[in-house]
Specification:
Order of helices and strands of chain A: HHHHHHHHHHHHHHHH
Largest sheet of chain B: 7 strands, mixed
Number of helices of chain A: 16
Order of helices and strands of chain B: HHEHEHEHEEHEHEHEHEHEHEEEHH
Strand order of the largest sheet of chain B: 2-1-3-4-5-12-11
Shape of chain A: globular
Largest sheet of chain A: none
Oligomer: heterotrimer
Largest interface: A-B, 59 and 57 residues
Distance between the termini of chain A: 21 Å
Strand content of chain A: under 5%
Number of strands of chain A: 0
Chain lengths: 440, 370, 261
Amino acid sequence: MSITELPPKDSEQLHEDSPRGSLKGIIRSTEIDTRMLGMVGLLLVIWVGFNIMSGGTFLSPRNLWNLSVQFAPVAIMATGMVLIIVSRNIDLSVGSMLGFVGMAMALIQAEILPRSIGFDHPLTWVIVLLVGLLLGALVGMFQGFIVAYVGVPSFIVTLGGLLVWRGVAWSLASGRTVAPMDSTFQLLGGGSRGSIGEVGSWVVGAIACAAIIFGLISSRRRRIKFGFRLRPMWAVVGLGVVGCLAVLGAVWVMNSYYLPENVARQVAEDQGIAWPAGGLQIPLGISYPVLIAIGMMLIMGFIANRRRFGRYVFSIGGNPEAAELGGINTKWTVVKAFMVMGILVGVAAAVTIARLNAATSGLGTLSELYVIAAAVIGGTSLAGGIGTVQGAVLGALVMQSLQSGMVLMRVDAPLQDIVVGIVLVAAVAVDVFFRRRSER
Amino acid sequence: MKTKKNIWALLAVLALLAAACGDGGTTETTVGSGGETTTTVEGGGGDDDIVIGVSWNNYNEERWARWDEPAIRDAIEAAGGTYISTDAGSSAEQQVTDVEQLITDGADALIILAQDGTAILPAVESALEQGIPVIAYDRLIEDPEALYVTFDNIGVGRLQAEVVFEMVPEGNYVIIKGDSGDANADFLREGFEQVIGEAVAAGDITIVGESYTDNWDPALAQTQMEQFLTQANNEVDAVLSENDGMASGVVSALEAQGLAGEVPVSGQDGDLAALNRVALGTQSVSVWKDARELGTAAGEAAVALAQGTALADVAGVIQFDSPGGNSMTSILLEPIAIVQDNLNLVVDAGWIELEALCQNVEAGTVDVCE
Amino acid sequence: MNDQVTPLVEMREMSVSFGGVHAVENVNFNLMPGEIHALVGGNGAGKSTLVKTLAGAQRADSGQIYVDGEPVSIANPRDAKALGIETIYQNLALAENIDAPGNMFLGRELTTGFGNLDDSAMENATRKIMGRLNPKFENFTRPVAFLSGGQRQSVAIARAVHFNARILIMDEPTAALGPSETEQVRNLIRQLKTEGIGIVLISHDIHDVFDLADRTTVMLQGKVVGTVSKGEVTMDEILAMIIIGKAPQDLTQSEIAEIRG
């Protein structure tokens, strides 16, 4: 019952399909989106290619760990951009908004709160984060209101926003760099202490694994209850095993990256542990930015597929008139989509300034392009109505992999831009080609 | 009825946008009003009122509004002249129009902070033909008839590298350069080369990472630094970052590896956060160019030129061979390398509050903070 | 009018104009329970505009609508649906990127206790109603963009029927259909009538109208030409009303002959 997957063409049967010999048949029976599979394939090609060219550095736990943190802010925003684009709108202002909200959050923790409650107060990070999310929501609501109720095209409203919020970001601190951030707040940005550690990571992995199995079982139960066609049992088991292995594998990689020796030494000192002869290997585990990005992906995916709001956004993208005639409050739905985008920008801004441990007025410059590109590479159609949240996150991962791989290969900035630009156009061209073929 | 409502809503929005913009750029675009003041003679200076036109490329950068502009204005007004200005908003095309506008408004001399030193050439030539002297402010304009007033950017690079080189005479270096489209990125790099070039050639210094950074973006510099550290397996002994913003990204990347404070990092601009890092020891040097000095020098030179002083007779000029092969008449000011030992200079100059400088600094480590 | 039964819907003095052109001008129209009331007329006669005011898709400039004798205000499709007024639009009004159950429940999704979409329940309900309307329908999980015209029509009708409509507006319900599917829809309309649902039927197909309608109202250039009951008039007389714009009693024999010729 998903909106964008294109399920098998053959007629529905109320019994298990028997596995067919061909690879196509096997993929069909698992009901996996073939587009998604293609994206994962592309990612693997990029990864293996860079790994060979970099002599094994690219797929080292350390580089993958860095990569996962670097991709988080774009991924977080891309999950919201999907809904915006699906609703036949666009948001060009996210980069500037990130600058504005980030600067505001930085000022609050570095200059305003210290005056009243002192520096590094335990509540600082909560207050800052809440204000940031609220600010993002308000800005989003304001822009969404002009789009939906005043009727100015979103391209224009957010193009204006791109200029306005950058200007506001500058004027908040007259262009100064604001630093440093609250020490608890800094955890949001990853860094050497900003991760949940070895045990925590395994727990998260185990929970994710359990959730996959539970999801598969409950979906099968529901289908049995209503007498719908079932996935073959081998496919269910296969999906469960592959899903769990992927999750646990990712956790294992995150746990294989150890605290840098200098930091570990400091930790040992703080905890009064003697420094062992062979050194101390403390796994970092999953970092907070990655945890936040995954959390946002799950929440946004849930909203897109399982909540009325998400369904309404898709229906507006498919046929705005039908949505209106169906009794949907389309204007308010659009406003809400922009609000959600604003909140996600707030989250991404928090991660960005926490990671940089500073806010500059140029923060987030050009990131609207990366966010839109991630959504589009991930299969979101600019004509509206089509797109997935997971796809956008994968798109963000593809983009960041390219970029960080090229820095690793010492490819200089202008050439990097050329490659990323070509990949963007090529990815969409391939997608358009296959989509047209499947429509025949 | 309905369309009328829409128009009102649109007007309300425009008003809001305008208000927001007004907050954003506090530029006093005095063109027009400035032109009028020339007719209503003001100030007790000369009877022949001098008008100096200043063309900013992008006023939305901290230092221009805060330091340079007041200094230029004071210097001009002290000599009895009138200050008028335009802001090109980072657009090279707009700046050409701006320069023509300033001439129309009666400027007797121009100070131009060029967005693009090549694109502005036709406008500069046309001004010079009309007998209006031009000062290339801080950024080079390749026209030998113009006066180039700047800090010695190669010298800035040299100063940065000297501090770091003294601390790490041999080992692995990372070089984080600025935007590839900005000539200063290459000047600075040249300054680095003058200091470490021999050691690199001799094999004492290995450059394990070097990259331009689009828009001098700190976040991008951080990502690049992370990748260089990964590639070199943390065996990085020193980082030459061309400015303070990028240095903040570099220091964050080093911090994640527990290397902040152990690996010397350079920078320039005297950013407040950077000076704080110098006090904390996580950044080794921030080359400080007192922008007020530059503004004063340019303002005074502009007045002198407007009064008919010949280019070569302006106080303090030297000849400087530009990358374009021109011998430019220049005023090159000496920047100062701010390190932990001379932080008092920036405090005494009123550049930074002691509180901001010494935030989180442990007692007994830095003299100024005591 | 001294009807014993209160009309299900009564529209009085309805007017709609677009930029000075009167699309609908002082039109009176009513619908009895269990009645099929056809609305006919040439292109631009104002039929669709009139029913859109009832469906909440178009605001009227003046006039008043009564449902069960009570004055009501219908500002948007939600208001209409709340009054039990369902509409099948000429262009079907389906979201192409969403599957059949999603379209059927669009705006009125079934949810679980936590407010999450209950896709299985919606698919199940759709399967049930399709079993009645179009047993051959099988594509429950593909976006409707991939369905044939007849299948899409089934979805649009299923949507209107499922929510226990009391008043059903059908704008050209058989336009996209083949002969057997058309017959299916006619049977369905008769069946709904026996359930006491009032149906407003807009159709170009004069056979549809003559077969099904209890009463027929003819419109021309935004005005009502006349309303006639089944058995009072011949098919030719209705055609004459549509084309010439005169009520049957005012028609001359030569005019009728002209139509026939």
